Amino acid sequence: MRLTCPFCGNRSIAEFSYYGDATLTRPGSNAEQSAWVDYVYMRDNPAGPHSEFWYHEAACRQVLRVERDTRTHTILSVQTA
């Protein structure tokens, strides 16, 4: 799998680290404990297009927002986070 970094160009996925789900919304500081438990531990397992954060640790050290199809691993878009 390859990602096209907006700063470095087309690179191997080995240069990147997965940083997590880009669709989550962090609860407010006064949110109930149950909201924090859901935020930290509960995850969907989507099939199809999904937004994720990836970190380009081997080069520019930028966090990128990647739209990836989870069924085929096809990269649909890459942009700065």
**Low-pLDDT segments, ≥5 res:** none
Assess the beta-strand content as a share of residues: 35-45%
Q: In the CATH hierarchy, what is the superfamily?
A: Folate-binding superfamily
Sheet bearing the most strands, described? Answer: 4 strands, antiparallel
Backbone CA Rg = 14 Å
Number of helices: 1
| Total individual domains | 1
- In terms of structural class, how would the helical and strand content be classed? mainly beta
Report how far apart the termini are: 20 Å
What is the CATH architecture term? Answer: 2-Layer Sandwich
Number of strands: 6
Word description of this protein:
It is built from one helix and six strands, in the order E-E-E-H-E-E-E. With 81 residues, the chain is mainly beta. It has a single domain, classed as Folate-binding fold, CATH 3.30.2270. The strands form two sheets. It has a four-stranded antiparallel beta sheet with strand order 3-4-5-6, with no helix packed on it. The chain has a two-stranded antiparallel sheet with strand order 1-2. Strand 1 (2-5) and strand 2 (9-12) form a beta hairpin.
List keywords for this structure.
81 residues, mainly beta, Folate-binding fold, two-stranded antiparallel sheet, 1 helix, 43% strand, globular
Question: Helices and strands in order, then pairings?
Answer:
Elements: E1 2-5, E2 9-12, E3 16-21, H1 33-41, E4 49-56, E5 63-69, E6 75-80
Antiparallel strand pairs: 1-2, 3-4, 4-5, 5-6
Summarize the structure.
With 81 residues, this protein is mostly beta strands. The chain has one helix and six strands.
